[in-house]
Amino acid sequence: MSGHDPLDNLIAKAREATPPSVDVTAHVLWKIRTDARTEMPAGPLFVFAGLSAAAAALIGVVSLQAWLAMQDPLATWFSAVSMVMQ
Amino acid sequence: VDPADKSDIQASLGGDGSAYARLVSRHQQDISRLLWRFTRDPHTHEELVQDAFVEAYMSLSSYRGKAPFASWLRTLATRVGYRFWKQQARERKHGTVPLQDWDQESSGPTDEATAAADAAGTVHNLLQELGLRDRLVLTLMYLEDHSVDEIASLTGWSRTMVKVQAYRARKRLKRLFEEARPQ
């Protein structure tokens, strides 16, 4: 910057401006503690999600078996008979 | 990394609130000065400084210690300030922002601090007329005196982009200044 340009002079002057004095320490700590308290702990959520997934898998297996049985109700009987015949 | 910062960061990550309080009080003046470039309202300014430190705490585990803690904080604070500008731009009604008359030669202000504050206010108003990227690059380059490399690191832009943006922004600011300046 040249120092003769009015815009440069303005910017140089603006650079000297001092901010208002702040002390945010107490407020920052308060905010962090408040946020931490309102945050839901993740642990129980993961346990619940795991149990739900296991239950869903179990229901899925049982449902599949039931569906296959509905498709061909005598399949189990015929397979037993064919085993005996052999 | 400053040893005092390093130990306080470790302690803060372990849940020691007083260690984080020490970090805040050690760096708040620097962050306050930087964020004063993003707003002229003392209340908003204080909120921005608070937000910067709360966000810093939330991301503290991502600080790898490769750069000084102060630089990491400044990057984060710059993002907080820039986000504030974006939010402000969304809310802002289009209209002309009154420019304060500023003439160094005539009617000189009574003291240096007032002159600096007036000049900062005028520059702030002028910058408000520019796009967000222009504002950011000019603020960092001319008011915060950062180098092209530093701005690239603070903003995540390439060096070329910083140079081009700064050049164009400077031209636009100059034009605005000429238009607004009392003849």
Compact description:
The complex is a heterodimer of chains A (86) and B (183). With 86 residues, chain A is an all-alpha fold. Chain A has helices spanning 6-15, 25-38, 42-71, 75-85.
Provide structural commentary:
The complex is a heterodimer of chains A (86) and B (183). By secondary structure, chain A is mainly α. Chain A is 76% helix and 0% strand. Chain A is built from four helices and no strands. Chain A has helices at 6-15, 25-38, 42-71, 75-85. Chain A is rod-shaped, with a radius of gyration of 37 Å. The model of chain A has no long low-confidence stretch (mean pLDDT 82). Chain B contains eight helices and no strands. In chain B, α2 crosses α3, α3 crosses α4 and α6 (132-143) crosses α8 (159-180). Chain B is globular, with a radius of gyration of 18 Å. Mean pLDDT of chain B is 86; it is low at 100-109. The chains are: A mainly alpha (86), B mainly alpha (183). At the A-B interface, α1 and α2 of A face α2, α3, α5 and α8 of B.
- Give the chain pair forming the largest contact, with residue counts: A-B, 27 and 37 residues
The computed structural class of chain B is: mainly alpha
Secondary-structure content class of chain A: mainly alpha
Distance between the termini of chain A: 100 Å
- Beta strand count of chain A: 0
| Span between termini of chain B | 51 Å
Shape of chain A: rod-shaped
